[in-house]
Amino acid sequence: MKATTELDHKVLKIDGAEVQVYSTARELAEAAARRFVQLANSFISTEGRFTVALSGGSTPRLMFGLLASKPLVDSIEWSRVYFFWGDERRVPPEDPESNYRAARETLLSKIDAPDENIFRIPAEIEDPELAARRYAAALEDFFRVKGQELPRFDLVLLGMGADAHTASLFPHTAAVRATGKVAVANYVNKLEAYRITLTAEAINEARNIIFLVAGSDKAPALASVLCGSREPETYPSQLIRPASGSLVWMIDEAASAQLRARVAD
Ligand code: 6PG
User: Fold this and answer.
1) Average pLDDT for 200-207
2) Residue-wise pLDDT tens digits, 93-144
3) Long-range pairs for 105-109 at CB < 8 Å and ≥24 separation?
4) Distance, CA of 200 to chain centre
5) Nearest to 167 by CA among 159, 179, 175
6) SS3 of 184, please?
7) Is the CB of 245 under 6 A from ligand 1?
8) Rounded CA separation 19/199 (Å)
9) Ligand 1 test: best mutation among 52, 160, 213, most atoms within 8 Å of CB?
10) Closest ligand 1 atom to the C-alpha of 55?
């Protein structure tokens, strides 16, 4: 592991992965929001649009709030941004558990993103397999891909659970082994619920993947994912290896606590 000190964070290189370590969750959110703006404006100027799959959970809320506030909110032409999700719980869009609702509350309701730019996962559909097929079809249609081709997001934002899951790719669940699909319905025993999730293959097509991980409760899993043996069934975040894009882990000090110990062994 090589540590270099940049302006406002340390950079660790662990087994080829770039890990940016910020002092606090707030500094992490600020850096992630700035990176989002940078990527959005770069793709909007070169491609005329920016396609992003948002993560769920609580970690990105602070970042979404910063993107929805001055000065950042005025630094993106939001009508050129297309929003997707990495995963969704099987609840209606107005449910407190909904990842879509979290993004709408903290970001989408505060920017002028046209409704037609927002591709919610229809997770409320009774049949979870149908919900996954509908979402996959919407992605294939938008990205104009067919057959075995996979959509290519400009950015996929991911979180990581304390059990090393990402999106809704949970340890020892069928979705961890899914191939040839864009999105699947994944039954998660420990939640006793289905989730709808992008597959690791679809995520790995992205041009940019950013993991946002904060909090001491994530430290053990992060050390296993980044420094432990390769066991993606147990640590599904290890599945995330972009085919040709970039992967950056943006974490806070608390989440990094066990990294050095593991690598220093
Ligand atoms: C979800 C997410 C999930 C999340 C991690 C981290 O639907 O919950 O997409 O993958 O990113 O569980 O969640 P926190 O940010 O709440 O710790």
Assistant:
1) 98
2) 999 999 999 999 999 999 999 999 999 999 999 999 999 999 999 999 999 9
3) 106/61, 106/64, 106/65, 106/68, 107/64, 107/65, 107/67, 107/68, 108/83
4) 11
5) 159
6) strand
7) no
8) 23
9) 160
10) 9
